[in-house]
Amino acid sequence: MNLTACTIVLLIFLLLPSCASEDKLFVGKPLSPRDVIVSIDGTFALGFFSPSNSTPDKLYLGIWYNGIPKLTVVWVANRETPIMVTGRSSSSAPTLALTNTSNLVLTDADGRVVWSSNAIAGTAGSSVPSSAAGPAATLTNAGNLEVRRSPNSATLWQSFDHPTDTLLSGMKVRATRGNRAGDRLVSWRTPGDPSPGSFAYGIDPATSLQLFTWNGSSTLWRSSVWTGYRVANGYVANISTVVYFTVLDVKDDASVSLTLSLGAPRTRYVMSYSGKLVLQSWNKASLEWDDIDVWPWYECSRYDYCGPFGYCDNTVAAPTCKCLDGFEPASGEEWSSGRFSRGCRRREALRCGDGDGFLALPAMKAPDRFVVVGNRSLDECTAECSRNCSCLAYAYANRSSSSKGDFTRCLV
Ligand SMILES: *[C@@H]1O[C@H](CO)[C@@H](O)[C@H](O)[C@H]1NC(C)=O
Ligand SMILES: *[C@@H]1O[C@H](CO)[C@@H](O)[C@H](O)[C@H]1NC(C)=O
Ligand SMILES: *[C@@H]1O[C@H](CO)[C@@H](O)[C@H](O)[C@H]1NC(C)=O
Ligand SMILES: *[C@@H]1O[C@H](CO)[C@@H](O)[C@H](O)[C@H]1NC(C)=O
Ligand SMILES: *[C@@H]1O[C@H](CO)[C@@H](O)[C@H](O)[C@H]1NC(C)=O
Ligand SMILES: *[C@@H]1O[C@H](CO)[C@@H](O)[C@H](O)[C@H]1NC(C)=O
């Protein structure tokens, strides 16, 4: 009897600290740098952080993985406007507050606003007490900070709509957002500096049919072209997880999203400060992030690396640039010394309309800068290209589904 009672007391005591942490921010109860908000299952935390020893004077508000020994931030509110921590002691501190108009407002120690969620102000309504019935910002188990006017009302604002460098399970990257430009995952400048770096990841604004990573304004890497709804689900054996990468191409709303099977370890896409897009998974044994996949994986799969009419052959042990059949390196000397940017040239000039034909190249990534021609059969797509002397190639696919009633995909 005594032993049991003792155990219960001990258990309650041990559980107390996590029970005490809140997953919500209410009006009139601002968050200060000593506080954190933790999602109900303990996966994510929201609070103030200083990214590294190199910038101890800068304070950011962000969301990170809770309960792992390596600070891994997945979202930052004020990446462009850090709070400067001055040496002088101040009676007040920076705070994150939820206003009675359901806006999140981040202020520095002097009360200056450094960031605000700027959700539709709406009606302030009747006086809102700091209780569960009024507006609240909730940190979900998925790592999303959601603002609602009342517990069951629609989401007014959510951090998932404002990605920084990370795509979490349940998040979407959209081609467009109403009148706003599409979403971009933008890298940190350095590991210790969350301000926007030069690398970005997003949907091709011209076609919505492929994904790019960019270095400033130049393209670094390009995905293959998708052909409608597509779920690429890869089973990653060593993390026992199915990673679903879903492309939705519906009228005016192309998007990509990440979903993980139940019980998955912490896994995320991140646009890294080094310019690579990485699928990372937390390794509980080594207490490190493992790179499960990396884009571009090979040097030669970088955008335009192999030049015009060149391609990266990744079916061989050491992937390298090759020329298409009927082509030869534009400069044999440069090509053999490993400089491929001038690409390849035709061995024999085209005689458009006079006996030229097409050569099928299976398992190739369709080239960039294509024109999409709707509602064409395979033969019509072939004809579209062969009757036009400036068309050099076409790609064709039958799609299994389409939101726009056109199941064909003809690219010229
Ligand atoms: C909302 O907050 C503002 C500023 O703090 C205050 O002036 C106003 O009276 C509040 N409105 C209600 C309805 O509580
Ligand atoms: C990105 O661009 C900068 C400036 O053009 C260049 O110095 C750097 O090497 C590029 N980085 C990558 C990874 O391509
Ligand atoms: C899983 O695979 C990745 C990539 O091949 C590797 O880096 C990592 O160490 C592996 N993780 C485990 C837990 O074996
Ligand atoms: C597709 O083309 C066929 C003839 O090629 C035409 O009959 C049909 O109306 C077209 N459909 C659409 C949706 O444009
Ligand atoms: C020929 O093809 C080019 C590029 O594919 C395109 O810009 C042009 O409009 C086409 N011309 C005709 C007459 O279809
Ligand atoms: C596309 O579908 C049509 C009709 O179902 C079929 O005749 C054609 O061979 C298919 N083309 C390709 C490239 O799969």
Automatic annotation (TrEMBL):
One matching Pfam family: S_locus_glycop
GO BP terms, alphabetized: recognition of pollen; response to other organism
Membrane topology, as annotated: Single-pass type I membrane protein
PROSITE patterns linked to this entry: BULB_LECTIN, EGF_3, PAN
Reaction(s) this enzyme catalyzes, per UniProt: L-threonyl-[protein] + ATP = O-phospho-L-threonyl-[protein] + ADP + H(+); L-seryl-[protein] + ATP = O-phospho-L-seryl-[protein] + ADP + H(+)
Major localization class: membrane
EC numbers, comma separated: 2.7.11.1
Chain's role: Involved in sporophytic self-incompatibility system (the inability of flowering plants to achieve self-fertilization).
Name used for this protein in its record: non-specific serine/threonine protein kinase
